[in-house]
Amino acid sequence: DIQMTQSPSSLSASEGDRVTITCQASQDIRNHLNWYQQKPGRAPKLLIYDASTMHTGVPSRFSGSGSGTDFTFTISSLQPEDFATYYCQLYDGVAGLTFGGGTKVEIK
Amino acid sequence: EVQLVESGGGLVQPGGSLRLSCAASGFTFSGYWMTWVRQTPGTGLEWVASINEGGSEKYYLDSVKGRFTISRDNAKSSLFLQLNSLRVADTAVYYCGRGGRTKVSYWGHGALVTVSS
Fold first, then answer.
1. Minimal Cα–Cα distance from A49 to chain B, Å?
2. Nearest to B50 among A43, A49, A96 (CB)
3. For each of chain A's 108 residues, which pLDDT tens digit applies?
4. In this predicted model, what pLDDT tens digit does every residue of B45-71 receive, in sequence order?
5. DSSP labels for A53-107?
6. What angle do CA A56, A85, B6 make, to 5 degrees?
7. Interface contact B35, partner A, CB < 8 A
8. Residue from A101, A90, A1, A94 nearest A49 by CA
9. Phi, psi at A63, each rounded to 5°
10. Which residues contact B48 (CB under 8 A, 6 or more apart)?
11. Minimal C-alpha gap between A86 and chain B (Å)
12. Residues of B in contact with A97 (CB under 8 A)
């Protein structure tokens, strides 16, 4: 099975900061990587799919990049409503969906 | 508006059974893969099972194979997960999701399953 390493597991940032989260796959997954946001007590929401395509209605301050094994998720200017946990998720067409361990974005 | 509403969660003893349901609305249910994902505080998000549009293809997490069964009723826009031989480790919030072949585009609010004696 393909392993996914997400980092950092948590970070502290201020409103207006640029925030970057990374995910690394154990083998080449092309662009088969998605990003989700989850707020406490709520279901996850899809933000980015296929590494860099924004889901419907997602603000443009969220972006994703990468291919192969290394992927990056960026919030260009952190807003109060962005404090949440973010997950990456890969798919390889064989073994279902694999989620990263999550990154909790907290207020500094 | 896409809506997914889970029901059927609850407290069950180890070895017991439970059936989760997910009522879908706001989209053509029969045109989409559907998925169950679970979440525990200690293990994060974990994909459980997916089913294709017509119900002919089903995929499962290794640890639930032979114990859980995913199914759907396209006429009633409903997704199901039958959970048998439940273990304490199956305790989690179970989310119904639209999609599952590559991504989960929309999620329900979740149903809590607690396995405890």
1. 7
2. A96
3. 889 999 999 999 999 999 999 999 999 999 999 999 999 999 999 999 999 999 999 999 999 999 999 999 999 999 999 999 999 999 977 668 999 999 999 988
4. 999 999 999 999 999 999 999 999 999
5. EEPTT--TTEEEEEETTEEEEEESS--GGG-SEEEEEEE-SSS-EEE---EEEEE
6. 65
7. yes
8. A90
9. -150, 160
10. B35, B36, B37, B38, B60, B61, B64, B68, B81, B94
11. 11
12. 35, 37, 47, 50, 100, 103-104
B55-59 long-range contacts, Cβ below 8 Å, gap at least 24? Answer: B59/A96
Two tokens, residue A49: 């799919």
Residues present in chain A in total: 108
d(CA A29, CA A68): 5
Burial of A31 (0-12, 13-18, 19+ CB in 10 A): middle
Contact yes or no for A49 and B109 at CB 8 A: no
Q: Rounded to the nearest 5°, which phi and psi values hold at B60?
A: -135, 150
Q: What is the residue type of A48?
A: I
The single residue listed with the structure tokens 């960026």 is: A74
DSSP B27-85: S-GGGS-EEEEEEETTTEEEEEEEE-TTS--EEE-GGGTTTEEEEEEGGGTEEEEEE-S
Alpha-carbon separation of residue A68 from A46, A65, B47 (angstroms): 21, 11, 22
